[in-house]
Structure formats: structure tokens, C-alpha cells
Write a structure and sequence with these properties.
- It contains ten helices and four strands; from the N terminus they run αββββααααααααα.
- With 218 residues, it is mainly α.
- Strands 1-4 form a two-stranded antiparallel sheet.
- The protein is elongated and about 55 Å long.
- 20% of the residues are buried.
Amino acid sequence: MTFETINSIIYLRPTGLKSGGCMSKYLKKSERKKQIKKASIELIQTKGYRNTSVKDIVDRAKTSKGGFYNCYSSKMELYKEIVEDGCKYRRDQMKKHKITNENLDKKTLFIEMILDKILSFNEYKKPYSKMLMEMGTDEDLFRFYKKNSKVAEGIFIDFCEDEGFEECICLNNKEYEAFINSLIVGVDIFELYDSESYRDFIRTIITAYFEKIDLFDK
């Protein structure tokens, strides 16, 4: 076994000992990180960011504090990785949407991508909505959002340049960001995920906005 392999494995407890009813085992670091992120996402959905502690995460993931800190230096580093995962997930979904809807014109296709971002449910949606709601009263979380929103901006710009939507890069502005985020929070609060009537309503608004700024007519 190479040093790199040994270094990628987290040792919890000697085989045969128990803690919290869970038998010890060896896990690769990548697998332990998946376990920790899954537990964190589940906790954030019910407790929010502020009220979720490292102890909560450790207990939910059935690991140890040593196991946690072997993977992440802090709770905020963990949250940063979850945000990045969410951004990459959305990018991949947009690419899939483009492939499966080649019959749509460019403007309609992009609008449908936005509607999916707002209305489709996935494991990252509620944690993101929670962050938007909490950062209004939590300065640390607001700074965290502002710092990591740059990651989302970079991924969006790369997508637009790679997939032929260069004209949409202009949507990287505070007004559009606030508009989309307010819709995401509203959908979560009122449980409007996959609502076709609300999808039609939002489609009308976004279409009108794009026409006003001549987004696809320049």
C-alpha cells in the first residue's frame, strides 16, 4: 500500500469497538467527505446554517471529530464545498437541458434553463434557500455568500462562453441576482416546486424582461 493510499484513508477506532451503536471501519477520505456533506445538507434543511454545529454533523454522519477535521478545517470550509457542488450540479443540468432540447430556439432554451433553476427540486436547493434567508441577520453568513458567489459567477460565465450563450453574461449583475434569488426563496417557502402554473407565470415575466433589454435581439 502506497503512502498516498494510506493518507487517503481515515482511521476511526480499532475493529470491534463501538461508539453510538456504530461499528468502526476504514473509509477513504473521499467517501468520508461524501458522508459528511450528506449529513450536513440534511441538517441544514431542518436546522439552518447557524444552528447546525460540528457535533450535529459528526453525530449524523456517524463519524468522529477527528474524522471531520481530517476532511475539513472548519464548518465554513465544508459549506464552501457544498456551495461549489451545487453550482457544478446546476451547470451540468443546464448542459443536459441543452442536449435534450435541441429543437428549442436559443431564447426559449435559456428561459427554460432558468425556470428549472428556480422550480426544480434537488438536494442543494433547500440549503441554498436557507442561506439566503439567514444571511439577512447573520453578517458572517452574508460575507460567506458574497465571497463564494464569485465561484457561481465564474461557472456561469464559463458555461455561457462554452455553450454559445455569450450574450447572457450581462445577467451577472446584482439586480438579476436579487430577482432570481427572491424567486428561489419564494418557491421554497410556498412549496411551489414543479408547479406548472407558477412556471408559466415566471416564464411570462422573464420573457418580458429579456424583450425589454433586447437580450437575444442584439
